[in-house]
Specification:
The chain has 287 residues and is of the alpha/beta class. It folds into 2 domains: 6-67; 91-286, Rossmann fold, CATH 3.40.50.150. The chain has 10 helices and 9 strands. The strands form 2 sheets. Strands 5-4-3-6-7-9-8 form a 7-stranded mixed sheet, with helices on both faces. A two-stranded antiparallel sheet has the order 1-2. Strand 4 (139-144), helix 7 and strand 5 form a beta-alpha-beta unit. The longest helix is centred in the middle third of the chain and has 16 residues, at 147-162. The chain is elongated. Bound molecules: S-adenosylmethionine (SAM). S-adenosylmethionine (SAM) is lined by residues 92, 94, 98, 121-124, 126-127, 143-146, 149, 174-176, 194-196, 215-216, 226.
């Protein structure tokens, strides 16, 4: 009998993941194989026959992915703004959809020396760390309510500081607290937030519904409970000309632009799209 090559194992894994409803079955299988073999996807030795131990590990990971565990929980890593972020059960997985919000925020900081930025609802601290990485001269404060998410954030903040990035100041706290970061009122150049925004009761794909913390996802009966608090915080915290960007779902841009307009405190109210061309974040500048 011919021994099974890695290429054949990946074809089998791709079929398993397709049948399970994973939407990037080939990419997921390759990422898991690269994780097991300690190489990049481009370096995968497709014609080689994997050792028994690697094969067993890979098949176990594919089975978990077929149960729709996020691939990032299985590899233990996600990437935002070129920064590698450790993730696992209990923390929201940073998404590629957030890259344009991050890019918009970094644009706002262009030409601002020693900027002050805040990341509300920081989760793993991905956005805050990406800002600090891109702008070593910045001061970045990040806030998170959930203690498990905070433990992932602490780990990521410590690792990036060890790697030489400007340390992020991490805070345990509630974004809906009207006194949050009161000491920064009127001084912040950039406020970024990817808050929970899903309407309560919506059923999400299993990667979120079954495996990620609901407190990271659901934003009340209209999905806007935390978003309203973020808007109020932006009025208070931003300096004149400072920028705010809030991530949201495909259909919330209009309502969030209205929330910003109602404040009478913002100009340049607009929205941006993600890599799918879908409205994904709403932006404004403080008058
Ligand atoms: C969608 S996740 C985003 C995490 C991270 N910013 C990212 O983009 O990967 C939302 C995060 O907000 C946190 N959160 C929810 N309600 C909060 C609140 N009232 N105050 C602070 N953090 C909150 C959740 O625990 C979760 O980590």
């Amino acid at each position: 009998m011919t021994a099974t090559t890695l290429g054949a194992v990946l074809t089998e894994a791709e079929k398993t993941l397709t049948d399970a409803g994973a939407w990037l079955p080939r990419e997921d299988a390759e990422q898991l194989a690269a994780h097991v073999m300690g190489c990049t996807v481009a370096q995968l030795p497709l014609d080689a026959v994997p050792g028994a131990e690697d094969l067993a590990r890979l098949r176990d990971l594919v089975a978990q992915r077929a149960d729709r565990v996020p691939v990032e929980y299985l590899t233990g890593r996600a990437v935002l703004g070129g920064v590698e972020i450790a993730v696992g059960p209990g923390v929201f997985v940073p998404r590629k959809h957030t890259e344009p919000l991050l890019a918009w925020g970094l644009d706002v900081l262009h030409g601002v020396s020693r900027p002050l930025a805040v990341d509300l609802c920081t989760g793993s601290a991905a956005i805050a760390l990406a800002v600090a990485h891109a702008r070593p001269d910045s001061t970045v404060h990040a806030i998170e309510l959930d203690p498990v998410a905070l433990s992932w954030a602490r780990r990521n903040v410590a690792r990036q500081a060890e790697l030489g990035d400007t340390p992020v100041a991490l805070h345990a706290g509630d974004v809906t607290d009207p006194a949050m970061f009161a000491e920064l009122d009127g001084t912040v150049d950039l406020l970024l937030a990817n808050p929970p925004f899903v309407v309560d009761g919506v059923v999400l794909p299993p990667e979120w519904q079954e495996h990620q913390p609901w407190s990271a996802l659901f934003g009340g009966q209209d999905g806007l409970v935390v978003i309203r608090a973020v808007v109020a915080a932006a009025v208070r915290l931003l300096r004149r000309g400072g920028g705010v960007a809030i991530e949201h779902d495909d259909e919330q841009a209009e309502v969030i632009m209205s929330l910003l307009r109602e404040q009478g405190a913002f100009t340049d109210i607009s929205y941006g799209v993600d890599h799918w061309g879908t409205p994904r974040y709403t932006t404004a500048r403080r008058k």
